[in-house]
Fold this protein.
Amino acid sequence: MVAALSMVFPTPEETMDFGRALGRALRAGDLVLLAGPLGAGKTTLTRGIADGLGVGGRVSSPTFVLARVHPAGAPGVPLVHVDAYRLGGDLSQLDDLDLDTDLERSAIVVEWGEGSAERLSDDYLVVRLDRREDDVREITLEPHGTWTERVPELTTA
Ligand code: ADP
Ligand code: MG
């Protein structure tokens, strides 16, 4: 793993803007794991990612549905937005949900995802969100596998 990289976003809009940059960089088969406590901004960041990917549908917390598929824009890949907490931390269960998408052709973003991906892939990006004072959020990127080469592109975008 290369050194983790931290950024500070004082407003939800700035967090979403970073999500947009990340979403524009995502490709089929990508796995992004969001870590951080309730209210840290995981769903807010995912809204930005969805916008950057150009997918359809309103992004809301996946808590009650376990996983939601946002259909691809043209061109682009679908977004699968997952709540790993509800899946008991076992992402291999995604295969059993009968989602209306091919996971290998989708970008997968997982709330509460840390610790749940190792069985799925060696290549994943952990995005850690921490609450600082008031509305300030610190986001730390922890790349694994091929993501180590991709993270520098994200932060210069
Ligand atoms: P989570 O999915 O991690 O539980 P949400 O994205 O649902 O978190 O909620 C985060 C809340 O914090 C939202 O109401 C959002 O508007 C607010 N917020 C305040 N400041 C920020 C910021 N800098 N970045 C992201 N969200 C923020
Ligand atoms: Mg959430």
Q: What stands out?
A: The chain has a mean pLDDT of 92. The first helix runs from residue 12 to 25. Strands lie at 5-9, 31-35, 67-70, 79-83, 107-111, 124-131, 137-144.
